[in-house]
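Before a colleague's protein record goes any further, I have to sign it off. My question to you is simply how this chain folds and whether the tokens agree. I do not need a full report, just your reasoning and any doubts. This is what I was given:
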Amino acid sequence: MINKIQILLYISLNFLSFSVLAYDIYPRGSECEVLPEAPEVQFSTTYKTRKKDSQEQSLDKVKQRLLQKTEQALEKYNTSLVVKSMNFKKHSDGTLIAKSSFIPVISCSKHTPVITNTTLDLFSNHVMHSKRMMSLGYNMVVNKVPSKIAELKLESNLASPNKVFGIPFGDKLHEVEQKIGRFSMLWPIAEGAHLGFIGRDHVLFFSNNTFVGYQYNESLLPIYLRNQLELFNEQVQVYNPTNNTTYLGGTELTPKYAMGIQSTYDNVQVVKVKVSNEKLESRLVGFSIGDVSLVERKLKKLPCPDIATAFNEISVQEAQLVKLYDYNGKRSYLTGCHQKVNLNQYGTVTSVELLDPISGLNMELRGGQRLLEGLNSWQFALVSQGDPIKAISGKELGERTFDVVEWSNERWQGHFVLEHNKVVAGEMVPIEL
């Protein structure tokens, strides 16, 4: 029987497929099998900061020392380790201290990333912000049947005036989902109106649950959302009916092809790319087909569920929230108040990211700026974005490290990120699932 140790591990011998691994160090939140009755392992190290060191340089150096110490201990403990917590303190004499706790584990699920010198961010729980590093919460194991997540697959990569990726204009939303498995992100706009994203560069527009428009752009989404979505690098082929040829995205766009595409499609964007010291090439970076004015005509604000009070009732409003799949293939929801709710494979909330306002800079999605303007500031429990730190109950605040302050109540533990002593962002983990 696996110990139900209160850590952020999601364990189920019945449903997880484990692979045999060498002794490794895994980040907090990894899906692993805990070594029964094994005590926690703790390490600490110090680094004397120098005047020329930036804060990030000092942190990287102390993390490297801590990682080396932990790696040397793997053989001694005869087991792999998962990060449970990580804390940093800086003394007045400039000494930076790193302390960490680890849980011994037997094995972890197949695609779990391993912490190495090249992935130090995983070692220290960096989340959403360059200054964020703090131990985050505790959870208990939940034995449920894993949610089945369909694979995203396309019939073809061809876009034409009548059909995109094998999907004819006029198909219903549920028919499209059956054909492709799922979207990378599905954003509800209004009753019967949706944006269905495929990877980071393609979006299908649905009005009255009917496929009416398509947009491709290499800068379709703002940087934050691009970085959140899974990679699906399907280069689009664009059909040119004027001469019955196709153009493959990412290749040179000759004047002959350009004329045919510009006469057939809307919002065509072409850029010059330097491919050598002597040569510039034209590339197609954006175009649209059909009606892509949906967001400009229809927009209903997303709901802001009270996640702090009823975090596992997120499924009640699932259809009204933005559903997305990240670069690890895990499901998340974006609420109307700059909250990203992360779920494990059982559909249970594992953490809530409280986001800085999402910038629409360089966003080419038609109506995208209006979409982002519809998102409100977040509130979590009694804390709201922009609150001064002194307004938060002292009983809930913990240790402050640089611009990060720990916070907890009877249900959640995590941290807030501060700017000018005001709360701007954070991440929270439920204490018990």
Remarks:
- The CA atoms of residues 405 and 416 lie 5 Å apart.
